[in-house]
Each structure stands twice: as C-alpha cells, then as structure tokens.
Amino acid sequence: MNLRSVDLNLLVIVDALLDEAHVGRAAERLGLTQPAASNALARARALFDDPLLVRASSKGFRRTPRAEAIREPLRVALAELAGVVSLGPISLAGLRGAVRIVAADILAAPLGGVLTKELAQRAPGIDLVFHPWHVGDEVDRLERGEVDIVVSVTSASGASLRSEPLGSYAYSIVMRRKHPAADAEVLDTDLWLAFPHLVVSGRGDRRGSVDAALDRIGRQRRVAAVAPSFLHALELLRDTDLIAAFPQIVMSSAAAAGLVSKPAPIPLDPISLHLVRHSRTDMDPAVTLVAELVRKVAPNLQDG
C-alpha cells in the first residue's frame, strides 16, 4: 500500500471507532457528527477490506478479528507519531554531523574561519567540510547529493532547489603595498593599464567581464598571468608588479595581507553571490543553521 494515499485523519477516527466499538460514542469523543463518523467507518472498511465493526445487538457493535488485530498496533503507531510531532526544537549544542559546502575560494577562505568560530560557540558538534570548487558543476553536485550548500556567482532554478541572493560585491584594483602604482593619489585608466594584469579562471580563460568593460571604452589590457584560484592569485600579487581587478571581498582573506586595493578607474559591474541548497535538507537543522550563518556573514565580508 502507498502510504501517501492514506488519510492520517481517517486513522485517528478508526482508532476511536475500534476503541469505543460504537459509532455514536466515537463521534462524540472526536467532536464529529454521527454521519461523519459513519462515513469514516465506510472509508475505513474499504481501506482495510474488512467490516471492522459488525452489529452485535440493536445498540452496539463488536470488533471483527481483523479489527482486534490492528487495534493495538494502530494505537501505538498514533501515539508514537504524536510524540514525534510534539518534540520541541532540537538543541543546537546537541547537533552532530557534517555539512558539506562548495564555494569558490573567493568566499570559502574568509567565510570558513568565521563559520568555524560561530559553530564552535553555537553548535560545536557540527563539522564543516569544504569540497573543491569545480567550475560549472556545483549545482549538479548539489542535486546528486554530494554536497549540502553551494555558494555560487549564478542563481539556480528547479523545483527541488532553493536559491537566494547573498549580496553584491564591487570590484577594486588590487596590488602589493609597495607596487609602483600604490602611492598614486588617483589610479586613472592609463596608470592602471600601464602594468601587466592578472586574472583568475578555473578554465584558463584570459578574458572576462573586465575586458568587456574595457572594450566599451575602446581600451585593452595585457593579461600576463592566469591563476586557477584567488588564493594563488593573491600570492602572485604579493611578489610581483602584476595588478588585478578583483571583487573587494578578496581583501577579507588573510592571504591579502601586504596588498592594497583602490577604486576601479572605470565602471565595473559587481558580482552577485547566491546561496543554493536542495529541498531534501529543508528539515535538516545542521544544514539550516549553516545556511543561516552564511546568509548572515557573507554580506559583511566585503568590508574586510
């Protein structure tokens, strides 16, 4: 039998009918009309393929052998279900388990430390597992159940997906503190483009949204290096005269020590980050808590 086709309310009425062995008393006990209780008995007879109650006299009924057999298991099952429903909220301190996150290192690096600190205070039994970022397949991994939370630069759609914006992050020009352009009172376009540039791309692409913005004003830059991650890129910036246009959030990372940022000399569209999770974790208190913390912390990281 498919349990989705079973009406739980009907089982509650059946429990009263079998206990009372009387339609009128069962109806009174449940606050139903007698016709409603009689209708429920007819539906229960169809469900169990048994009369359940048969008339024993002009004033009452007796239970059939099938009714006697299901009476106690049904009572126990309903009592256990009532206990589940009446359980209070789970104590965060008592939560145990791991929450698996995929996030580009632009966010994973600064976010990881903050989340770990918050969880140590609120739910020390939850472990954070950051999975490697693979460009373009993060939502597929979420749908396959390999991870629980994705932080992505793109939103996601689908009946089973929950996607919400975390915030927008403006671009800044990042360089080492002793870079030849670091002391400039104003970093104009000519000075910015006078130095070789560094970009981050998991696919090895040399062009991106910054180049599209330069195209609009008829300018170009020389991309001298491509790094697969922001952490790698920040290390390169600290040791060279490379210059980069990165979302300001990178400055929240400890790896940005020794670097400075300046306003971009041309308009650059900010990036938007989204938190994506799957509906199968809607009732998972550990995943819900971590998602809540990501939602709370992420917008503030751009101030790092």
Q: How many domains make up the 3D coordinates? A: 3
Helix/strand class: alpha/beta
CATH superfamily placement of the largest domain: Periplasmic binding protein-like II
List how many beta strands DSSP finds.
12
Using the 3D structure, state the CATH architecture of the largest domain.
Answer: 3-Layer(aba) Sandwich
End-to-end Cα distance, whole Å, is 57 Å
Number of helices: 10
Helix content: 25-40%
Low-pLDDT regions: none
CATH topology of the largest domain, anyone? D-Maltodextrin-Binding Protein, domain 2
CATH class call of the largest domain = Alpha Beta
List keywords for this structure.
single chain; 304 residues; alpha/beta; Arc Repressor Mutant, subunit A; D-Maltodextrin-Binding Protein, domain 2; 3-stranded antiparallel β-sheet; 10 helices; 39% helix; 22% strand; rod-shaped
What can you see in these coordinates?
The chain is an alpha/beta fold and 304 residues long. It has three domains: 3-86, Arc Repressor Mutant, subunit A; 95-169 and 271-303, 3-Layer(aba) Sandwich (D-Maltodextrin-Binding Protein, domain 2); 171-263, Periplasmic binding protein-like II (D-Maltodextrin-Binding Protein, domain 2), CATH 3.40.190. 39% of the residues lie in helices and 22% in strands. It has ten helices and twelve strands. The protein has helices at 8-20, 23-30, 34-48, 65-86, 105-122, 138-143, 189-193, 209-216, 230-239, 285-297, and strands spanning 53-57, 60-63, 97-103, 126-131, 149-152, 161-169, 171-176, 197-200, 223-227, 244-247, 259-263, 271-278.
